[in-house]
């Protein structure tokens, strides 16, 4: 319990450093500075000021996951945020149909409007509520596993890269651009590519760590069977996203012995360069075919 300090012989009234106008005769047990009730934090003995509490927090050793992420208590905020943004965009699509047209990915437009490689992952088919419900359910399930394992920032980067991989896969497997009826001129939307990428990451990581992924494998197979049962689903994006996620997971597994955040970021940077190079190569191939045709 903190005891008030006796009056200062000089007659100067002690005041809180953060709130100079507030008289305080209670002092921090660590630095002995006056601390007002608002800035007091209970300690094992007496109270500590906010500055000492922050200093102790910085000095505390941080527990890291096997993939180098700082272990944080609480909910997976990035996962919940991605779900919230996707739902908000879906509502916006219903209110303003032009949003879908502006953000959907089409291989023929990706060269001129490259943001479509990512924006399509936050759009869903307005007339098919099961589309977004199924994707968000899978994102919610997988994010609770991956986000604590790799960290919030790297999880967000991995999700976006898996979305990019889905768009690149859809573009690369598209038919020849010279055919007006090919998928080169077809728009696609949905987080399925990113979700399949998360599946690829989780399955490889769990397998590497010796865990059981039977339930996730069943969920993945159900997702993989949808293009066969439901027409119009872009299986190319599913495959591209899955391969991108597997690539990222392989890199994180290979560097996990270092438990260094920098190693994980290097893996993500390499994946981004590779996916970007594949997209550029496809556009160069299409351009060469167009020039050869005349």
Secondary structure blueprint with pairings:
Layout: E1 41-42, E2 47-48, H1 50-59, H2 77-95, H3 98-103, H4 107-110, H5 116-119, H6 129-150, H7 152-172, H8 192-208, H9 214-229, H10 235-254, H11 261-293
Antiparallel strand pairs: 1-2
Helix pairs in contact: 2-6, 6-7, 6-8, 7-8, 7-10, 7-11, 8-9, 8-10, 10-11
Indicate the structural class: mainly alpha
Task: Determine the N-to-C terminus distance.
Answer: 87 Å
Low-confidence stretches are none
What's the SSE pattern?
EEHHHHHHHHHHH
| Sheet with most strands: strand arrangement | 1-2
User: What about the largest sheet?
Assistant: 2 strands, antiparallel
> How many DSSP-defined strands?
2
Cα gyration radius (Å)? 26 Å
The percentage helix is 55-70%
Shape: elongated
The average pLDDT score comes to 85
SS summary, helix count: 11
Question: How much strand?
Answer: under 5%
**So what's the oligomer here?**
single chain
Describe this structure in words.
59% of the residues lie in helices and 1% in strands. It has 294 residues and is mostly helical. A two-stranded antiparallel ribbon has the order 1-2. The protein is elongated and about 90 Å long. It starts with 40 loop residues before the first strand and ends with a helix.
Keywords summarizing the entry:
mainly alpha, two-stranded antiparallel sheet, 11 helices
Short description:
With 294 residues, this protein is mostly helical. The chain is 59% helix and 1% strand.
